[in-house]
Amino acid sequence: MSTKIDKIDRLSELSAAKDDERGVSLWTEAFRRLRRNPAAITGAVILLLFVIVAILGPILAPFTPTDPSGIREGVVKSGQGIIPGPTGDHWLGYDHQGRDFFSRMLVGARQTLLVGVISTLIGLTIGALIGGVAGAAAGLGGRVGRWIDVVLMRIVDMLLALPSLLLAVSIAALLGASLTTVMIAVGMVSVPVFARLLRGSMLAQAGGDYVLAATSLGVKRNTIALTHILPNSLAPVIVQATLTLATAIIEAAALSFLGLGNPDSAIPEWGVMLADAQPYLGIRPGLAIWPAAAIIVTALGFTLLGEALREALDPKLRK
Amino acid sequence: MPLLDVRDLSVTFARRGQRTVRAVDGVSFGVHAGEVVGLVGESGCGKSVTSLAIMGLLPKQRGVTIDGVADFDGTDLLKTDARAMRDIRGRDVAMIFQDPLSSLNPVVPIGVQVTEVLTRHRGMRGEAATKEATALLDRVGIPDPARRLKEYPHQLSGGMRQRALIAMAVACKPRLLIADEPTTALDVTIQAQILELLKELVRDSGTALIMITHDLGVVAGMCDTVNVLYAGRVIENARRKPLFYEPRHPYTTGLLRSVPRLDAGRGTPLNPIRGSVRDVLPWPDGCAFAPRCDRRVDACVGEPPALVVGYDGHGYRCVNPTPQGAQP
Question: Helices A164-175 and A230-257 sit at what angle, rounded to 10 degrees?
Fold first, then answer.
């Protein structure tokens, strides 16, 4: 008798569990599969670590990152090629200006991540705006729409035709060297990618049956573009954004390395640190290796997460 | 005076470097209020293009030419501009498509998609729209409609998705409904339920229904009058009974003969129509079915066969029709 009641309880549990599954959207579903993917977890853990460091960096840092204590105490004499390596107090040694390198690494995380995120957001916003308008116009706007699309896309093609670093360098040269310049320059480089991606994705969706069905019900074109086509076209753009974050950090580092970043090297940033290490590569390679490794690992984290996200959102792989 | 009067509808697709295709060639038929009219034919005969042309859903681009008249209660749908057409679609004329899964937006809950139509044409918002949407889902036989509104298309079964699409199509009580193979993507048992639902809606609201199908069983169960299409032309049109009992065009006869019969003995071979729909005449005049026809005579290849109208409006385009009284 009790087993029968147990079974009834179990049954209602099962049906309750089924109720929880109601209202599962594409995104919830994707997140669920993301959690089961080891690559996604690895990427997320790496990024989480770096984000924590970025937030808590100044608190965690054992020394003031801008204090040239090494020179004051006479330990560092970069003119004579004396830059001490790791010690018990200074885990990664000093940099060429006698500042604690480990502290600079920790504090630099914030700037570097900020550059990556903001420049990607700049590229994403402008690119998605251009691509979204072009895609909607081409897909639904008739003859006028096709013209709008052609004009917008040719502008994007012009951006795409320039090598990305050259484009970034010319923007940076135009606006003068600063951190803002680096973000704008790196952001502009990714504009064509986002624009083309969203446009193509929207155009593909515009030919979909559900768009025809909505049209056959007299739904307005603006509504179709915004509530039907756009949400279905966003997945590849979001994936691209995570991948762009990785390249944005590397490109920002490259610009800083070329001396187009923040001229005030007192505020630590991995790209600038990499550039500063150049003359001392023979004496203390660690000064270049650590920031380079940090950049690479951050990029790896974003890439892992991005790739996993792409897989999770791919409808062909969904069960 | 029929509600929708289609006269001499022709649609051609021209592409540079390719042969111009005349997908629909002088199609005429009428639909009265409360009537179910069938458009029957195999793939590529112009059924869907006909319906898309009436709905104004064919892409307006170079190379697509639409001629003729589709008089809907005094308005020629083919000449109406795009803006006015958007007002008519969904309110006066609505359409149901073949594949219910791909016809619903996968990332938007059902409720949003149903209320969208109500907002667009009936100005309903918020609570009132949700209430009406619930009533609509209930009317098309979706159990627990309030909860279903919050669900996404992939959580509904195929039959329920088609019911939801029907709910969206009838949301504004259109006077004309076009169903383009509404049951093709569904299981047989669900097919019967969906057809029953459509029949009920037509009977209760007096909506005229154009039923596009290649399934003769659907025609037999649903349609009042039937138009048989072949290669873009209506080759036979009649009321349901005469068409099934006394088909005059050899194509219709062949179609009916090719239906497998339950009372035929085991091992009885099927009776297909020989050739395929691609075996059309290489020149435009003449009967397109001639290359596959058993009753072909020399006159078939000369000029397009004229419409012969017989008893009770039974029309056919054939110079050597199946004799009356022959068993199909």
Answer: 70
What is the tally of structural domains in chain B? Answer: 2
B256 and B226 in a single domain? The answer is: no
Is A143–B152 a contact, with Cβ atoms under 8 angstroms apart?
Answer: no
Task: Provide the residue range defining the domain that includes B66.
Answer: 4-230
Stated pTM of the model: 0.77
Among candidate residues B195, B230, B265, the one where a domain is terminated: B230
pLDDT along chain B (328 residues), means of 10: 91 84 89 92 86 88 88 91 90 91 88 91 89 91 90 87 91 92 85 88 88 89 91 90 88 86 79 74 74 83 82 85 72
**Are B296 and B218 contained in the same domain?**
no
Question: Could you say which of B94, B102, B104 has the minimum Cβ distance to residue A216?
Answer: B94
- Rounded to a whole number of angstroms, the distance from the CA of A45 to the nearest CA of chain B is 29
Q: Could you tell me the CATH superfamily of domain A34-75+92-317?
A: MetI-like (1.10.3720.10)
Residues of B with CB under 8 A from a CB of A: 55, 57, 60-61, 82, 86-91, 94-95, 97, 99, 102-109, 112-113, 116-117, 120-121, 147, 150-152, 155, 165, 168-169, 171
Output the DSSP codes for B269-325.
PP-PPSS-TT---SSSSS-TTGGG-TT--GGGGTSPPPPEE-GGG-EE--SSPPPTT
ipTM of the complex: 0.81
